[in-house]
User: Fold this.
Amino acid sequence: MTMTMQTIRDGLNALKKYVVDEGRRAPSNATVEGARTQILHLTWMIDEALGWPDESREKAMRWLCFAQGVLWANGIVTIDEMKVLNKGAVEPPDH
Assistant:
């Protein structure tokens, strides 16, 4: 499946809602300040990418993937959760 700019936007919106709006937290072994700074930066990145025109699809995809990688590396979301979020769903299974 090729992601269009709209499906990327849907994924970015779902990721933002799931992580930022619902207050998902990094696991206890992550530094609180570091995780907080990363979430703030990812929020900025998502907001920026959501405003881009359709011609910026590839860049938006890179930023979505980067955000997902940071969240996965910090144990905030799983690969399975991100698969569902990429489809624009706000609630991944088993949430």
Summary: Helices lie at 5-21, 32-50, 57-73, 79-86.
